[in-house]
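QA checklist item 7 of 12: single-chain prediction sanity check.
[x] sequence parsed
[x] length recorded as 318
[x] structure emitted
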Amino acid sequence: MEPKQEELLEQLKTKYDAIGQDVNKHLNGLLHAKPITYWDYIHTDALLSLQIQRTTLPDEMVFIMYHQINELLFKMILWEIEQVAFHKELTTQFFAERLGRISRYFDMLSSSFEIMGMGMEVDQYMKFRDTLTPASGFQSAQYRMIEFASTELINLIDIRFRATIDRDTPFKHAYDHLYWQAAGKDYETGQKSTLIQLFEERYMDDFIVFMQTYNTLNLWSRFKSLPEEERKDLQLLNAMRHYDHTVNVLWVMAHYNAAGKYLDSGEKKVEATGGSDWKRYMHPKYQKRIFFPDLWSEEELQNWGIDNLEGHKVLTKI
């Protein structure tokens, strides 16, 4: 036996001894294992069986696959955020590198709206969308989790109610005043739309637990927990600002513009499938969704979502 093989066997024995397993049984098991294939590893057949249309209109397939791709990217984003949130010895380099990954995923999401904007016939969309009511992209639970994992809850509260909510506020009360509740809730009567009701029946309990988990582990809290000198790291600061602007301005506006092509396409203006006033709900200048508010100047905050075409300035000094 070659020295390299002996070394590998010894490492395997050490690995399985540590968990109380007999290495010989695992080696015997390898004799009967099938070789891995691409289609088995990726589960291609299962993945390609998930596109099920509700109509006979061909462009509905584009719509379904586009949103499924979004959800896969959201899962990638949550995976990267988790690496930062639970890192025991977090460094500015690791933090900035993971934010870079996340921003690139959102860059893909932003540019991919052209797939819908240029890839579906308006007439087809306006027909098959009626079969989707009251479902809406609003009901993406993973996207809401990305928000919870990115910033402190106060930054996600409807701007009208932020002064009445603090860290001692019960999570359920904070949840009821999140900015996106405005898409389907009458705050005077407390009545919620079917869109919101169905969403909460499925996910609200999960959201409350997730909110509690990330209450002090979200990206903003983790940044603020770093030593003062490390919070001045330009690479990290620019990565934070880039992520914030990419998610809360560029991606939102790409979504806004794609929706406008279809919802404003006819003589009669229409609501989003969930029934919301989509223009006022989506545009960042109204809700000012900002994950890391202290990293922006007063002028940048005032112009949030207005000068989105110019992007954000890269910091060259503190």
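[x] summary fact logged: The mean pLDDT is 88.
[ ] second reviewer sign-off
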